[in-house]
Amino acid sequence: MKTIGFLKEQEADILGDSISYVYDGDVAPIVESDLAKVVAYLHRGTIIFAMTLSLQDSMGNVIAPYEVLTDGEWLWPRYLIHYIKKGQTKDIPAEFYDRMKAFNYVAPEVPLEKEISAKKYFEAILLDNHPKYKNRNKKST
To answer: Across the strands, what pairs with 17?
Structure first.
């Protein structure tokens, strides 16, 4: 499973990189004529994690519910769409962009086993990196 778009401005020590740094690898700028199709693809991913929490931008405006989506290979937070639409994130992994194009910008239906795998992967990252849960398996002495 690969991740994109988890930003420290939203994740508070869970997964995030700075908003100016979304992915370490080959990136491709989103072509202006593809922007609406990229956004549609991201909206149509399969939700594998959700909380009743609304996220805000630095100005205090609500930007998205806290949801994590997948296309069976990639995981991304719903709020990534806000940053792409606002032009604050202009590049995405070339591999992910190529995948979107291969699926004609329609997120594929995710088989149940991949959906379960994606959820377990995300929850492991969340629980292993969040300060509240980091020591959950350590025994008190």
So the answer is: 7
> CA nearest 68: which of 128, 133, 106, 118?
118
In a domain, 134, yes or no: no
Whose tokens are 């806000």? That residue is: 82
Backbone angles phi, psi at 3, to 5 degrees: -120, 150
- Comparing CA positions, the residue from 29, 97, 90, 19 lying closest to residue 55 is 19
> How many H helices and E strands in the chain?
5, 6
Task: Give the total number of structural domains in the chain.
Answer: 1
Q: pLDDT tens, position by position, for the chain (141 residues)?
A: 888 887 766 665 455 444 444 445 556 778 888 899 999 999 999 999 888 878 777 778 888 888 999 999 999 999 899 888 877 666 788 899 999 999 999 999 999 999 999 999 888 876 566 554 455 454 444
Question: Which domain covers residue 64, as residue numbers?
Answer: 2-129
